[in-house]
Design goal:
mainly beta; Immunoglobulin-like; 2 domains; 8-stranded antiparallel beta sheet; about 45% strand
């Protein structure tokens, strides 16, 4: 296996590749020429890559080397991450049953926060005028004062709010329940991962 000039002297972005020969039916490449963007007639510009009698392992090695170039040279930007790896400021959880859609939204932090609950029926209409009660606690960590009872107040059509106290970050469970027009009790629970 003989490879010459595996990497360019300068950082070129390669736009095309032409294979000029293959030996027999094997997958070994006899000659591979990579042409930098902007070159004419398929001839490599100064500092480009020219690989002769390059077998498949040599080709794989060359591709790995090219992919290892800095992202700025390859014009590929890094994935955008949240600053400091912080979690989202709010959590939205939704539960759907044949009769109702329950959507819960809460601040993602310890302390006393407001929790919003939106309730819609199977047609998508707001469910209004319900007395909704519930509770909040940590299933894996019993604490004094929990479960804490919640009383949701309707602030708008089908939108209910309650104050919740998260003692600290971790996994919390919130439940909500009401009685429908047919006298049947409807109950839903939400498991939340609250940031520290």
């Amino acid at each position: 296996m003989t490879c010459s000039r595996l990497l360019p002297r300068n950082a070129y972005i390669f736009a095309s590749a032409s294979i000029e020969g293959v030996r027999g039916k094997s997958s070994a490449l006899r000659r591979l020429r990579l042409t930098p963007a902007g070159s004419k007639g398929g001839a490599p510009a100064a500092g480009g890559i020219k690989i002769k009698r390059c077998t498949v392992p040599c080709l794989i090695f060359t591709v790995i080397c090219l992919l290892s170039l800095p992202a700025t040279l390859l014009r590929v930007g890094p994935a955008t991450a949240a600053a400091g790896g912080q979690k989202a400021p709010h959590i939205t959880a939704e539960k759907i049953t044949p009769e109702y859609t329950w959507t819960l939204r809460t601040a993602n932090k310890p302390g006393v926060v407001q929790v919003g609950l939106t309730l819609r029926d199977a047609r998508g209409a707001s469910v209004q005028g319900r007395t909704i009660k519930g509770g909040v606690w940590m299933p894996d960590m019993p604490m004094q004062g929990y479960p804490m009872e919640l009383a949701f107040q309707e602030a708008d059509a089908g939108q209910y709010f309650a104050l919740v106290q998260y003692g600290h970050g971790g996994f919390w469970r919130i439940t909500a329940e009401f009685t429908d027009d047919g006298g049947q009790r409807r109950r839903q629970s939400f498991d939340l991962d609250i940031a520290e």
